[in-house]
Amino acid sequence: MIQKPHNHDVSEQGERKIPAGWLECPHCEASCRDADLPPHSELRCSRCGERVKAAHDSYSFQPALALTTAGILSLILANMNPVLTFDVAGASQSGFIITGIEELFRQGYWPIAILVCFAGVVGPALSISSKWYVVAACCFRVRLPFVREVFDCISLLRPWNLIPVYAIATVVAVVKLKMMGAVFWGFGARWILVLAACSLLGMQYFDHEFVRKRLKDLE
Amino acid sequence: MKLSDASRIEVSRALVLTGLILYIPSNVLPVMTMTIVGTAEPLTVLGGVEELYNSGLPLIACVVFLASIVVPFLKLGALAWILFLHGKPAYKKERNTVHRIVHTIGSWSMVDIFLLSVLAAVGQLGTLAEIRAEPGALFFAAVVVCSLLAAEIYKPRLIWQTDTTQSA
Predict the structure, then answer these.
(1) Whether the Cβ atoms of residue A188 and residue A85 lie closer than 8 Å to each other
(2) Which end of chain B is less enclosed by CB atoms within 10 A, N or C?
């Protein structure tokens, strides 16, 4: 189903007012008239073609909660265990995620260290924990403090959850290091892969429209 | 901090231009030096890809080439095209699609920065092996940040701005 977009008024604060019965396209922000959807159908913005709303027969917050909980645990374990061990002629060294950041700081490349720290540790941690907080509120129907603000932060943090990219970089690093010596996978690397899988699957199960609706019901 | 639409366009243009300028030193200067048993080898981004390819790993070399060289350039080029056409009625749907693609694939250019971090973490074995970051990595990180921020600041709704003015 394709809806004709419409443009609504803008408040003095620069925020667009979306009246009841209208939905905002998550991509181009055009207003589309809301409609009851038949099963397995979706509402698309006629301006940009992005999905505005989908009909779920039985949408549940539980898979998203399970994946974000698993994500938080794997994030902790990924940071607590060594990612790789490199061995050259009997001398070996193990490295955690934080070891790389520390080493870049030590070498004087603090802007890169900050970038890696933010995109590889802080960004994913904030992104997953904020999702968990919002999904937990929706799943247990509890009105948690600042849940609306946390929900707004999720889309801001989305580009900074780069754990899947970190997982690819780890694989490339193993390939490069194998040319010079022996490399052994650490438990941290396995948890990074689990975390990457949880992050990617969590994105699929986190339906912004349903979450927004549930949060509105809780208010 | 809320940016006005005009500021968003100006800041995005500045970031894209900065990214395009910094793209040159990020590819010319070495991003890391690998020292193995006293033999130091400075590696540029392309040099790293070549090394992987020559080692019989064309698939991995292809992934790194796409993520570290093609994606940042395409992203900056695409954003430059979108910003150049801003306010004009041409190719609105195409610009919208390109923006969506840029937003989705853009973060993959961080592979090289993370790679440097992982290698630096385990590559400190004194005289046997040492991996050091080089200034090229700083330029590369700046290119990645510029492109990520430009894509975030230039909202897709700005592509349709002339439509909004007409119907309002």
Answers:
(1) no
(2) N
